[in-house]
Every structure is written in C-alpha cells, then in structure tokens.
Amino acid sequence: MFKDRVAVITGSQRGIGRAIAESLAEQGCNIVISDINGEGAQKTADEIAAKYGVKAIGVSCNVTKKEEQTALANAAVEKLGRLDIWVNNAGAIRDDLLMRMSEADWDLVQTVNLKGVFFGIQAATKVMMKAKYGKIVNISSVAGLVGSAGQANYASAKAGVIAITKTAAREYASRNITVNAVCPGFILTDMTSNLPDKWKEEVIKQTPLPKRGEPADIAKAVRFLASSDADFITGVILRVDGGMVIGL
Ligand code: NAI
C-alpha cells in the first residue's frame, strides 16, 4: 500500500508515534523518525529499518522550533527523496488543577501540542504543495472534545488541534492535500503510566468497549487516513476511544 512513499512522524521514538511508524513501515513505507530525543529517534529508526526492510532515518527535532520542523521536512526530501505523509504526533502534558496551573506549564503544553502542529503543517505543506499530493494526520485527544479535569492546558491545546485540522483541510484541499485528526481515548504509554491505577480502572469500566486501547489501535486509524483508501476524506476528526465519548 505504501511502497516508495515517505512518512514523517513527530515524537515517534516511542509510544503511539512509534506504533504509527511501524504500521506504515509494515506496508513498505520509508520512514523518518523524529523526536526531541534525537538519540532515541536514531535507535528507533535503526530498529524499524532492520525489522521491516524499509529505509528509515532518525532526525532530532523539537516541534516548538519552526526552523527545526522546516529542516525535518527538508531531511525527508534530501535523504529519502520525497514527502507524502506527515503525522503531527509529538505531545506533552503538565497536569494540574486550573486554579494552581502555572503560566509556564500552560505555555509549554500549548506550544508543544498546538504550535507544534501549526509549524508541522507549514513545513509539510511547503513540500507537498509542489507535489500536489499529501496526507497530514494530527493526533488530538478525546480531552479536546470533552475536556479533562486537571488538564486545562492540554485539553485546550487538543481542541485547537481539531480546529486547525478543519481549517487546514479547507485551505489545502485544492492542492490534493488531506488533513485529518485522530482522537485517542485512554492508551497506556509512558505519557499515561503515572496516572493512578484507580483512575485507569474507572476509565476502562466506563468505556463501552471495556478494554484498554493499544498504540496499535491508533496506528491502524492513522494508517487508513494516510492511505489512498482515504483519498476522499478530509477534515475528519476520528475518535479511536472504545466509545468513550460516543456522540461527539
Ligand atoms: P509519549 O510520551 O510516550 O510520546 C511522546 C513523544 O513525543 C516522546 O517520544 C517525546 O520525547 C516526544 N516529544 C515531547 N515533546 C516534544 C517536542 N517538543 N518535540 C518533539 N518531540 C517531543 O506519549 P504518547 O502517549 O505516545 O502520545 C503520542 C500522542 O498521542 C500525543 O500527541 C498525545 O497527546 C496523544 N494522546 C495520547 C493518549 C494516551 O492515552 N496515551 C490519549 C490521547 C492523545
């Protein structure tokens, strides 16, 4: 399905981003693993290249820096020849109740989760507009749909990701670039590993499909939106949450 295509996934040295990279590589896609942790990115890229027999490179990129995202898009073209798929996946949390939340924690979470997507779309589309082809997938969250106590910064940023997805879908459709978003529910990764067990059990109990989601569940949805099967789909916000927030 993805033979000779090239995908960039931000924040993909581990977790959901890595699962997305693996699911694309499994179908022949060449991969750029990028992360603020450059060493981790290189290691993951080497492992993916060895496991799936595709080309994979690791690039250090802090998504909050515009020039680093531009360099990331250029690295895909210079080292792998093209750029077809871009997944804005990098994310960070700094949870606290709104009343106590510091300005620094507000700014960091907004900057990584929302400004990072803005810079990512700009960097990717600069290349994709010339090719008149592109698939952009943004990772939002159910928190962006229904809010999340203790995550005012994160939920607001993820709601912003939904709005920028719909806006970019409208702006780039005439260039044959689709822009969609996936909203994961609760997925066990390093990001969620510190949450109290009681909270995790409660969330699973309240989810219509009573199980924990896996990074691979998100990866399969992203792979669909990045594929030619989704050529007529843009501006969609796809929940992958076991039915956690049905109706939204
Ligand atoms: P994770 O913490 O395991 O992975 C996030 C990756 O992003 C890490 O490798 C980290 O180094 C990287 N990163 C952090 N700041 C960065 C920056 N400024 N520039 C570049 N890379 C940076 O988290 P996970 O769970 O894999 O999350 C992936 C995405 O999925 C995030 O956008 C997250 O908000 C979203 N998500 C996760 C959910 C979950 O339950 N795990 C639920 C809903 C959304």
UniProtKB/TrEMBL annotation:
GO biological process: fatty acid biosynthetic process
EC identifiers of the protein: 1.1.1.100
Subunit composition and interactions: Homotetramer.
Chain sites annotated for binding NADP(+): G11, S12, Q13, R14, N62, V63, N89, Y154, A155, S156, A157, K158, I187
Protein name per its UniProtKB record: 3-oxoacyl-[acyl-carrier-protein] reductase
NCBIfam families on file: 3oxo_ACP_reduc, PRK07231.1, PRK12826.1-2
Pfam family, one: adh_short_C2
Pathway as given in its UniProt record: Lipid metabolism; fatty acid biosynthesis
Domain Ketoreductase: residue ranges: 5-185
Homology family: Belongs to the short-chain dehydrogenases/reductases (SDR) family.
Alphabetized GO MF terms: 3-oxoacyl-[acyl-carrier-protein] reductase (NADPH) activity; NAD binding
Protein's job: Catalyzes the NADPH-dependent reduction of beta-ketoacyl-ACP substrates to beta-hydroxyacyl-ACP products, the first reductive step in the elongation cycle of fatty acid biosynthesis.
Active site: Y154
Superkingdom classification of source: Bacteria
Catalytic reaction annotation: a (3R)-hydroxyacyl-[ACP] + NADP(+) = a 3-oxoacyl-[ACP] + NADPH + H(+)
Keywords: Fatty acid biosynthesis, Fatty acid metabolism, Lipid biosynthesis, Lipid metabolism, NADP, Oxidoreductase
InterPro entries: 3oxo_ACP_reduc, KR_dom, NAD(P)-bd_dom_sf, Sc_DH/Rdtase_CS, SDR, SDR_fam
